Backbone:
């Protein structure tokens, strides 16, 4: 399954090994792992809780993967996004792309992250010393996604 | 129309993240007034219920809307059995 939304952690190495197994045409694997930081917008973050829209999330991620496949020559693509409460240093998201050459793999991986951040229905709420606060969407993320259109 | 009239269109309205908290509910079943045909009409009708809808769904507020789990615009039509979600701009990744 190219898209997974889960509370459990993931192992990027295991996922990448599974994706290259049995396909000698793969020449490049690009991956990205997003990680929880302990500082955001000047406040110390104790933990964060990720909420999502079950059903639409999977649908939106699958659509983003399809879009990447239409733009680049890929063998496979995988997106794993965690939900629930996560702490600093925890992994949040994994994107892996396989292709014959690195150029397409790098670009598709970055595209998937940029689109995911602006189109997949996830929301982060951080716990800071002042209480809980919802993370605001960043215009920089919109600009990053707009580069591809 | 009579309350038990089977022709009454009902929709499921969902709220996420900050809007879920502000409205104090994750979802509600809404009987669509006859004049509500699209997302813009639903927004106006929800605002007519007063606060906090009036404030939170005011024009210009950064609210995103999905109809049947696809991103929608003000002109997207709404009908019986639809699932309409209101939420803030997304912040995943």
Residues:
């Amino acid at each position: 399954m190219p898209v997974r939304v889960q509370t459990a952690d993931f192992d990027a190495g295991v996922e990448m090994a599974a994706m290259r197994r049995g396909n000698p045409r793969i020449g490049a694997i690009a991956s990205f792992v997003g990680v929880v930081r302990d500082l955001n917008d000047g406040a110390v973050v104790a933990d964060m809780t990720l909420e999502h829209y079950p059903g639409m999330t999977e649908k939106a991620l699958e659509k983003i993967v399809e879009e990447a496949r239409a733009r680049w020559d890929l063998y496979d693509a995988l997106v794993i996004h965690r939900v629930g409460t996560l702490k600093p240093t925890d992994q949040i998201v994994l994107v892996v792309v396989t292709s014959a050459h690195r150029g397409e793999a790098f670009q598709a991986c970055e595209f998937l992250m940029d689109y995911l951040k602006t189109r997949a229905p996830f929301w982060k709420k951080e716990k800071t010393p002042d209480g809980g606060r919802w993370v605001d969407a960043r215009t920089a993320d919109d600009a990053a996604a707009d580069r591809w259109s | 129309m009579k309350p038990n009239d089977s022709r009454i269109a009902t929709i499921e309205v969902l709220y996420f993240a900050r809007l879920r908290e502000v409205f104090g509910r994750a979802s509600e079943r809404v009987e669509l007034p006859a004049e509500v045909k699209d997302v813009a009409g639903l927004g106006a009708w929800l605002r007519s219920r007063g606060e906090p809808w009036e404030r939170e769904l005011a024009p210009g507020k950064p609210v995103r809307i999905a109809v049947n789990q696809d991103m929608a615009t003000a002109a997207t039509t709404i009908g019986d059995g639809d699932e309409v979600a209101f939420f803030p701009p997304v912040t995943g990744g």
